[in-house]
Here is the input.
Amino acid sequence: MKHNFEKTPLWEKLVGFCGFVLICFTVVYLVWAALTNTDQPPSIDFNVVRTEVVQNQHMVLVEVKNNGDRTVSELQLEARLTDPSGKLQRSVSQVNYLATQSTQRVGFYFTSDPTKGELTFITMGYQEP
Amino acid sequence: MSTISNPDRQSVWIEIGRAVAGAFIFGLPLMMTMEMWWMGFYIHPLRLLALIVVSFPILVCVSNVIGFRHTREWLDNVLDVFVAYAFGFVISATTLMLFNSISWNYFSEINFQIVMLQAIPASFGALLARSEIGSGQHDSSIEKRNIDRLAVLAIGAMYLAFNVAPTEEVQLIAYQMSFWHQLALLVMTLAIMYIFSEAGSFSAASKRAAYRNIGFALSYTGTAFMVAMLASVFMLWGFGRLDGLAFSQIIANAVVLLFPAGIGAAAARLII
Here is the structure.
């Protein structure tokens, strides 16, 4: 039983054309992505979004961004707060996955007010997925 | 303005409904699997491309056997596959957006990879919908080419393997199995595949005398085994689950994934 392509409904031709464009775009994009990937190691940027008091503690909400070309997993982060008296406080957090050029929000808790001290962020380590 | 008669309008909605239902039923378990979202973060573009390139001709052959309608011309089959991809992509993108699994926080290319990865099994569902959950009106008596038979085996193997290959459980199971466990699993896989082959020989789809002998069931089991093994290794490689493993661990992982893939391949003949 032969099917006449001319009798194929218009909607199916249109959806099929969209699928064709999608597949062509995907192939071109994936080849381009593979060829242009410079494989830069993960480079993590920290950007403080806000600080707020939560149950007698100070929470610092930070947006971390991976500027490298490789996705990282089990990303260990540490925030260090040095208060005016020179006392050092540490707070740690972990991000399961942070894809390339993507961001994730992370919270760090301190007992001292971070706005009255010096806050630094350190990338401790990660795993390649 | 085009005029569409009521039966035509009904038929359009039935076709669309089946494709959407198939994409959901086949794709949803994977859309709700976190390893699949994370896989989109780091899968190598060429491996994703390989998954698409390998699945495309398989789907075209499967469409020759079943499909959205009684098609036998290659252009119709290719069109069926593109329609299935389009449905798979839209359903996956919409669902993942609702789950917030794709997000503006992610690089747009990462979002695209996550959706495209999910669109592959969803498109299997959209294409298979007619046979699986549709009216089942496809003509199973039509003589299939050998390449079509292999494609049916491959689609069965790939579908079930797709559900587990991205998960960490495959590696964990492989770690906790001894060589004796692996051997026993391999024997059990073959036994189940043989039972499915025998059952398939007696199904309505294959009443011919040639199919009702032990030789045919054994040869079918052997072919299905080979296709399922290739599909297992390919899926594990595609998802990066073989990277850095010793040869013995590669075999162990392949044997574990062969269990669902082999059952999928052998059962495909009963279902499609």
In short: Chain B has a mean pLDDT of 83.
